[in-house]
Amino acid sequence: MIVTIDGPAGSGKSSTARAVAERLKIQFLDSGALYRVATLLYIDSGKSEPLFFERLEKSTISFHFQEKIFHVFLDGEEVTDKIRTMEVSEHVSEVASRKEVRAFVNALMREAVKKDVYVADGRDLGTAVFPDADLKFFMVADLETRARRRFDELKEKGMEADLDSIKQNIEVRDQKDSSRSEDPLKKADDAILIDTSKLTFEEQLTKIADQVSDLVHNK
Fold first, then answer.
1. Which CATH number fits domain 2-212: 3.65.10.10, 3.10.20.310, 3.30.70.1450, 3.40.50.300?
2. Structure pTM?
3. How far is CA 85 from CA 36, 47, 114, 166, in A?
């Protein structure tokens, strides 16, 4: 069973999906983290597309959710923190727009959810990856709120962060994600819209968790 939470960068979808999984004791799948691993591989390949695609085909990306953290590994090395740098953020939309990358990551996710109950967050899960998902949400928030959330997230992890740079990065990612030819960011017709701009985290968590809980118990 799969529940999807889509939305633009910084809308709160990842932290909410993780908290829903923790509250309901189900599995969490962070699709954005998987694209970030591919982006890290792209950067480590010297941003050479031929070398990157060659390495991507041969690479093993694995992951698991444990103690509120979505751990990701590239060829056996944990890269959970490495994928959250600003350099990765600046290139992730570019890498994620590649048809070969999307096919690779989508295959990983579809294989993972064949067993157990998952809540997953991303940008095109409800439209392209899991169009038949049991329940779909689409989260939005204003730009200022999203930039502040990302800034606080980086500072909490002890990373350097500049609010204006983050805001600019999110604006660019929004444009790229919404206009890409491969699976653009958009709300699925049957997704429930959640605007988190003026909601506390507990409010948005409860709003989604209650509906997921009802679905799980009725299955």
1. 3.40.50.300
2. 0.79
3. 10, 16, 31, 11
